[in-house]
């Protein structure tokens, strides 16, 4: 948990899948199932933050600034997941939030894979 990134990767990978499942259920008009998937996704927000924070506290000394940015952009991704699903339910436009989600996701994946722990194909 503190030295390996597997648990963190598992939590955000499942969250991305749940986010798209929720989008699909919304499109299919299945509001009840979407609500359930959304609640499970919210649980995964907590798991992503906990696993990320455990890695952060132990290793941020390697590069505090970059680890700090990594954590903040990770929270930004979670915020965009939440904003998009809530706005869909309210029938509001999700265009800007979707663009911001793609940008945040690209940055967080880049930083995550660049930082020294775990997979480092960008190093
Ligand atoms: C959906 C949101 C997030 C995504 C997609 C994401 C993605 C990633 C990726 C791709 C890695 C690299 C894994 C590896 O190299 O094996 C990583 C590592 C890490 N993440 Fe996240 N993350 C997210 C949220 C967070 C949050 C909220 C925090 C802080 C609270 C955080 C802190 C970290 C730390 C400290 C590492 C280790 C960096 C290193 O490789 O040295 N992440 N994350």
Automatic annotation (TrEMBL):
Domain of life: Bacteria
Keywords: Cell membrane, Membrane, Transmembrane, Transmembrane helix
Subcellular location: Cell membrane
Membrane topology classification: Multi-pass membrane protein
Source species: Rossellomorea marisflavi
The protein's name: UPF0344 protein AF331_08215
Signal peptide per UniProt: none
Lineage per the UniProt record: Bacteria, Bacillati, Bacillota, Bacilli, Bacillales
GO cellular component: plasma membrane
Family in the record: Belongs to the UPF0344 family.
Main localization, broad class: membrane
Listed transmembrane segments: 12-28, 40-59, 65-84, 96-113
InterPro entries cross-referenced by the UniProt entry: UPF0344 (IPR010899)
């Amino acid at each position: 948990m503190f030295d390996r990134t597997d648990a963190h990767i598992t939590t955000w990978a499942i969250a991305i899948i749940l986010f798209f499942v929720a989008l699909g259920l919304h499109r299919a008009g299945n509001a009840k199932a979407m609500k359930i998937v959304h609640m499970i996704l919210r649980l995964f927000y907590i798991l992503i933050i906990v696993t990320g924070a455990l890695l952060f506290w132990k290793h941020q000394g390697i590069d505090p600034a970059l680890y700090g940015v990594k954590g903040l952009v990770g929270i930004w991704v979670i915020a965009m997941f939440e904003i998009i699903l809530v706005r869909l339910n309210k029938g509001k436009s999700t265009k800007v939030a979707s663009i911001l989600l793609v940008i945040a996701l690209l940055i967080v994946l880049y930083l995550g894979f660049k930082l020294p722990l775990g997979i480092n194909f960008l190093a």
